[in-house]
Write a structure and sequence with these properties.
Blueprint (H helix, E strand, L loop, with lengths): L5 H7 L5 E2 L2 H6 L9 H7 L6 E3 L4 H14 L3 E4 L16 E4 L6 E5 L2 E4 L5 H8 L4 E3 L11 H7 L6 H4 L10 E5 L7 E5 L15 E11 L3 E8 L2 H13 L5 E7 L19 E8 L3 H10 L3 E6 L1 H4 L10 H11 L3 E3 L2 E2 L3 H11 L3 E2 L1 E7 L2 E6 L2 E3 L3 H13 L3 E2 L7 H4 L6 H10 L11 H8 L1
Parallel strand pairs: 2-4, 3-4
Antiparallel strand pairs: 1-2, 5-6, 6-10, 7-10, 8-9, 8-10, 11-13, 11-14, 12-13, 12-18, 15-20, 16-19, 16-21, 17-20, 18-19
Keywords: FAD, Flavoprotein
Protein name: FAD linked oxidase domain protein
Organism: Gloeothece citriformis (strain PCC 7424)
Length: 446
């Protein structure tokens, strides 16, 4: 096997922003994979050889050409806030850090064009100047990049209204650089964007995105507490189903999960189950009627002005719930589950007890509000974790497995032939984030 000539590669790209020191390279080779004890074992020693931070598409083309010339693996990353090893290089090579490609090309009502390294919170600050904002965002909103979210994310705050990133219309267009002998710039529009949407950067370097926006409402943040978990869950479903109440977040936490939120402990009575919500401030009156109907108690309420400062409730929801819980008990891990119905939620709640503490995020799925879970799991063994996954699936729940770095083995469970065929055209040598796409790996074995 030919050894990679790193001195020559470094020399060819020396005019770009390079990071070569091992500490810097190691830091930018990783994400939050350690949320999973399974991935932690598999990925802890994986590192790139060189990090490059391009500032524009022209520099990306130069990097692509060098990678193809030397047959060097290339892994694209945003801010590295993912949890599944999406941006961890399995075979070393070059890490292409997109965070310096952070220009907002344009924003107009309902639509924007950005480079991939634009931070989501920074974008929203600008978009709100004309009354618009991102449709959805992860709990890492303050630091996550738009390109990283498209490449590795799927749902988040806002999904209760706007569904998932894979839904038609959630991504309008992308520009990508290929890894062919002569790298090209391609523009994908409409349904064609699904070739690279949530593909972990395995089949194109995204250099520009066109994204739809949502009207920016003044969001009130509230905590509502309940005596019974299923009452809290039914309240969440009722709020999700309330088409007349404009909302951005419906997050339900079974006790003892609220005990991990030490910064909010004065608002979370011991033994109570809670809902974290974000609703438009002009919908407070019907919201309060809903709280009353379910015998809830509002313990925390911030006006839009107050909520715009300090820590948002968002940072206690979605996978920040896992982050905060693990900071207190590192033996905890998590699952991602589509329960689809409250009946299934209740069954799992009673079946697993505190072994699988239920944390629900309501989202829109095929036009309906459904309960999805990021339940906290008391990890014992990989075998037991697999038993828990299997039981959920046997009972009709859908598991998006966060304990694998293989693209198709996570949420979708099927090979996307369009993505594989697109990779054949744009990455014929299989250099982009190798080892992550099962469809490509099986093709190589065939």
């Amino acid at each position: 096997m030919t050894l990679t000539d790193w001195p020559t590669i470094t020399d060819e790209l020396a005019h770009l922003d390079l990071i070569t020191d091992p500490t810097g390279v190691a830091k930018l080779s990783l994400d939050y994979y350690h949320f999973s004890p399974i991935l932690e074992k598999k990925l802890q020693d994986k590192r790139g050889n060189l990090v490059i931070r391009p500032v524009n598409e022209s520099e990306v083309l130069q990097i692509a050409k060098t990678c193809v010339k030397h047959k060097v693996p290339l892994t694209v990353r945003g801010a590295g806030t993912g949890n599944y090893g999406q941006c961890i290089p399995l075979e070393g090579g070059i890490i292409l850090d997109t965070t310096k490609m952070n220009q907002i090309r344009w924003i107009k009502p309902g639509l924007a064009c950005v480079e991939p390294g634009v931070k989501m919170a920074a974008f929203d600050k600008k978009a709100r100047e004309i009354g618009w904002e991102l449709r959805m965002a992860p709990s890492t909103y303050r630091t996550a990049t738009i390109g990283g979210f498209i490449g590795g994310g799927s749902v988040g705050m806002g999904s209760i209204t706007y569904g998932q990133l894979r839904d038609r219309g959630s991504l309008r267009a992308v520009r990508v650089v290929t890894l062919e002998d002569e790298p090209r710039i391609l523009e994908l529009r409409g349904d064609e964007v699904q070739k690279v949407n949530h593909a972990y950067g395995t089949n194109g370097i995204i250099t520009e995105l066109e994204i739809p926006l949502a009207p920016a409402h003044p969001w009130v943040e509230l905590i509502v507490v309940f005596d019974e978990f299923m009452t809290a869950a039914r309240f969440g479903q009722a709020l999700g189903d309330s088409d007349g109440i404009v909302k951005k977040l419906v997050s339900i936490h079974a006790w003892p999960i609220p005990s991990y939120f030490t910064a909010l402990e004065s608002y979370l009575p011991k033994g109570k189950h809670c809902a974290f919500v974000m609703i438009a401030d002009y919908d407070l009156e019907p919201f309060q009627d809903l709280v009353k109907e379910y015998n809830g108690q509002v313990t925390y309420q911030k006006t839009p002005q107050e909520a715009s400062k300090g820590t948002s409730l968002l940072e206690f929801t979605w996978n920040h719930t896992t982050l905060l819980a693990r900071s207190i008990d590192p033996n905890l891990t998590y699952l991602q589950t589509f329960y689809f119905t409250l009946e299934r939620v209740e069954q799992m709640y009673h079946h697993f007890g505190d072994e699988a503490m239920i944390h629900l995020e309501f989202l829109r799925f095929h036009g309906k509000a459904i309960p999805a879970g990021l339940q906290l799991i008391r990890f014992t063994t990989e075998e037991r974790l697999n038993e828990i996954i299997r039981y959920h699936e046997e009972q009709g729940a859908g598991i998006a497995n966060p304990h694998t770095y293989i693209l198709e083995d996570g949420g979708r469970k099927v090979i996307d032939l369009d993505q594989v065929c697109f990779k054949e055209k744009v990455d014929p040598y299989g250099l982009m984030n190798p080892g992550k796409m099962r469809g490509w790996l099986e093709r190589e074995k065939a």
